[in-house]
Each structure stands twice: as C-alpha cells, then as structure tokens.
Amino acid sequence: MKPTLVLVGRPNVGKSTLFNRLTKTRDALVADFPGLTRDRRYGMGRALEREFLVVDTAGFDPVAKDGIVHEMAKQAEQAIAEADALVFMVDARSGLTPHDEQIASRLRRTGRPTFLVVNKAEGMNRAMVSAEFHALGIGDPLCISSAHGDNVNALMELILESFPEDDEGDVQDEKGPRVAIVGRPNVGKSTLVNTLIGEERVIAFDMPGTTRDAIEVPFERNGRHYTLIDTAGLRKRGKVFEAVEKFSVIKTLQAVEQCNVVVLVLDASQEISDQDAHIGGFAVEAGRALVVAVNKWDSVDDYRRDRIKEDISRKLPFLGFARFLYVSALKGQGIVPMLKAVDGAYEAARTKPSTPKLPRLLLDTIIRQQPPRHGGFRPKMRYAHQGGMNPPVIVIHGSALDHVPPSYVRFLERSFQEAFKLQGTPLRIQFKLSHNPYATKD
To answer: What's the distance, Cα to Cα, between the start and end of the chain in Å?
Structure first.
C-alpha cells in the first residue's frame, strides 16, 4: 500500500511548490502571497523509484473559529486524520513564528510521524537557519528548497525509509481479485454491487453522493472469491463542496491503488464526460486491469446506443485494451459476462510474457516499424525480457533509448498486447540503456 504524505504549514511556506515537485505537475497554483490554496489537492508522487499519495493543504490555522480560515483548517484536519506521515513546513526566511508553534502543538497530539522541513533555505547556512526550529519539539529540522529541489531527495529518503517497499504484487489477492467499482456520482455503482452479491448490502439511492467511503464487500460466485470495493463518485473538481465528500476522493483513489481490477461504470443516459476520461486515466496510470461497464443500457433507445458507442470511441480511445460491457445493474442484465471480463482482466494482469518469445517479437515489431531517428542516429533495441506483472512489464535493452518518442512506446505496447492477447490490462515498457565499457576510457 502506498503511503499518504500530507503537507502542512502556515500560508506561503511553499507547500504547493513542493507538491508540484513531488508530483512532477503544475496542478497546484503557486504565487508569492499567502492564502492562494484554500482546498486540499491530491496527486501521485514519485521519488527514489517509490510511489506515494501526496496531499497539499491550505495554510493551517488550528485555532481559527469561523470564516474561510476555519473552513481551510477543517480541510487540513481531514487530511491529517488519514495521513501516514506529516510534512510540517516552515519558512527559513521568516524564522520561527507563533503560528508555527500553534501548528506544532496540534501536530504533536496527532501521534502521526512528522517531519519538520525548513523551506526556502537555498544559499543560507543550514545549521544557523535550522537552529531556532528545534524549539518546536518535532525532531531535527531538515533544510530544503522546494523551488530549486535542494535536499528534496534527502527528505524523501528519510520519509520513505520508514515505510516498506511495494513489490510488484503489492495488491493482496489471497482471497481472489479485489475489484474497485468507480465512476461519477449516480451512475449505479452501489446498485451494481448489490446486484452482484444478491442483497441490499450498500445504500443505493437516486441522489448523487450517497456513498461517502470506500466499502469492501467480500462475496463468492461459482466457487470463486472476490472482494468488491464500492467507492464514492468522483465529481469534477469545481463541484466538490463538502469536506466529507472531498475526503472521499482520496479514499477512492486509494481503493484504485489497492485493487486488482477496476470496473469503470458509465451512464448510458448521459454523455461521456471529461471526468469519465480522468477516472479511466487514473486507473491506467496506476497500472490496474480495467473493465468498462456501460450501465442503464436498458433505459436508452437504439439511437442513443449508437451515440454512446461513438462517444466512447472518440473520447476514450486510450482504453482500447479494456473490454466494454453494456449492462443494466438494476435488472441484472449483462452481469455474468461482466464478471467473466473481470476474471479475464485479472488473469491478463498476472500474465508473465514468455521470455524466449520476447526478443523475436521485438525484432518482428522493429522490422514492421523502426523507431524514428533522433538527430543523426536511430535508437537501437537489442533484446527484451519480462520484468514484472500486475501490470505486465517488458524491459527492453539497447542504446539511445531515452530518445524513443511516446508515440513509438504506445506502438510497442499495442504490439505486445496483441501478441500475448492481454485484453483488459495495460502493459508497461521499460527501457534500460546498455553500458558502454569504453565510455570512461581516454
């Protein structure tokens, strides 16, 4: 399970800048004035070959009683409650403030592992800068610069060493596949869960946002065990208002990370939205096997059915590896084929491509279409071998592979998926540059 790191501190200490660096995005707005961030933002971070969930919070005032500052503090408190580790950020250039002391007092009571980070310390004497922050009683301060990246790797090494590393099969599947049911609000996720298990196990109500937490439901069918995870609907960012609902977004993303197969539920009576694409994209980014269930198929006419299929091919082409099933959760139509698709995607994700076949398949693929030239040379791909599963990973060795464009990587992924009939699971290509024994010689 990937750890959740929550960035906490008073306004304008650089939390959003560090969030952007860890997630390698520009998702969090950054400006040189306090109070810009008011909501909390979440993203997948990666450092030192490890992945984690990172949460950016608004400037934290634990003693605020009312107004927007109090609402911002409630958001931070929600994130703190579910953190695996807290990153408490202070400002090297402002020095220790009473506000920092108030936050430190609150964080000490949480019992969560807390790492004190002195930000904006570039060009300053670290020992002198950090000295006064020892008074906060949260351990040894670590000086960094989130804007320039100074000492950020040292920070992440310190944090991540206390969490066990995920292995390729980090998703527990001793009791069969874990299946996360995800989608926008009110598309029929809870109804689908109830239909699968044959009882009213979770609340299904014709109002968006009924489900707030990720609910696990074990069940058995035809001698096979499953664990269904009913998740909260993911709305567009601008339409998420309540603090509880915002917190449920993190629980949904964690459910995707911890499952074997994702069932993305679409609503046949509505247009395919950007949010549907974002949810599917997150599942692909997480490397999860995927089945797409187009629900409420019984409630639309032939014209609408043709329209939704065109909409899917136009807006979700990156999900071409997945099986699309047209179902009615309310009437139980298409449920058996959907479970078979889940089983197939689960097995495909656990496939170990035959290593003897991989070099030949790589050669055939290159003969069919060579990688494009970069400058005056062309990347050379010499051999391939299996590198992992869930999702399947193929490692390709060669030279100048850092110049292979993303379009050619996608071509390789499709070729290997077709060759090994890996329907229902994404496939990862990893490049390893061959060592040149003469590189260090005169």
So the answer is: 47
Whole-number pLDDT of residue 218: 80
- Residue 190, pLDDT score: 82
Sequence-distant (≥ 6) Cβ neighbours of residue 195 within 8 angstroms:
329, 330, 332, 335
CA 126 to chain CA centroid, Å, is: 34
Q: In whole angstroms, what is the distance from residue 428 CA to residue 436 CA? A: 25
How far, in whole angstroms, is CA 368 from its chain's centroid?
Answer: 34
**pLDDT < 70 stretches in the chain:** 1, 26-40, 166-175, 199-215, 232-251, 434-442
At 252 the pLDDT is: 72
Residue 233 pLDDT = 56
Closest CA to 119 of 218, 223, 15: 15
What residues contact 403, with CB distance under 8 A and at least 6 apart? 374, 379
- Smallest CA-to-CA distance from 345 within 292, 410, 285, 272 is with 292
What gap in Å lies between CA 220 and CA 142, rounded to an integer? 50
232 close to 209: Cβ distance less than 8 angstroms: yes
pLDDT of residue 436: 53
Task: Decide the pairing of beta strands 114-119 and 41-47.
Answer: unpaired
The predicted pLDDT at position 206 comes to 44
Closest CA to 179 of 346, 427, 391: 346
What is the model's pLDDT at position 266? 94
Q: What is the largest CA-CA distance in the chain?
A: 75
Q: How far is CA 78 from CA 14, 71, 251, 430, in A?
A: 20, 11, 12, 37
pLDDT computed for residue 30 by the predictor: 47
How many Å apart are CA 281 and CA 262, to the nearest integer? Answer: 11
> Exposed, middle or buried: residue 164 (CB in 10 Å: 0-12, 13-18, 19+)?
exposed
Instruction: Give the per-residue pLDDT at 230.
Output: 78
